[in-house]
Predict the structure.
Amino acid sequence: MNTISAVATMAQRELLNIARSRSQLYSSILTPLLFLLFLGNGVSSGLEPANLAAGNFTAYLVAGTVVMTSVFSSTFSSASYFRDRDSGVLRLLLSTPHHPRVILLGKSMASLGIGVGQAVVVLVAAAPFVEFEWQYGVVAGFGVAVAAVVLLNLMLTGLAQAFASRIQSMQGFHLLMNLALFPLLFFSGAFFPIDGLPLWLRVMAYANPLTYAVDAMQLAAYAASGEGFIGLPTDFAVLGTVAVLVYGLGLSRIPRLTQSGQ
């Protein structure tokens, strides 16, 4: 079996395992959609935010909801690493003639595919019910949003793989992922504009790679113009660079075969 076939086989195995876990699939999609439904409509109707570029908070929140979906997906999908390790399957996989990075590449490709798929489902499900401007047109704007989603999930998949290869327990992995990603999510412009934040928080926001994913998706679908946003060239330059570096880091970390709790 050549390298490409091995990667494809590993990816297919991971996709089938995730597809069997219907609760994981449903919760990763429905939780962000419920968040968008209740928080978006509640704030838009109750507080009437006026300092948004296009004035509609529910539409503004879609980009953040898509990013949240990707964060959930990267965390849940990487749980298969711990199941395989603790059951001894990972040891068997790594004993094959293929390099360990081939196994990791196949598993990460499946996680990437699931993350992108779930994020796109949330975007498509939300689009008919919110007031998007689509300043580049629907087709081009959707393409820009999907490109941002792919780079974002590439980065998150690499980060999850880097953590999972060194943390002994699934509980510790989820704790560290939440500790690392949720502060970044809140200071990314996902739930409120970063322009009105104090200077030190704006500095943190601009140092946050999730900020550029949110900005790209807002420019693609939500915004009527580029005024008040970072801009797509900067968004994709930063997001692409960080995604490649972090994904490369994740693949470079050969997993430990210790059992959790030992």
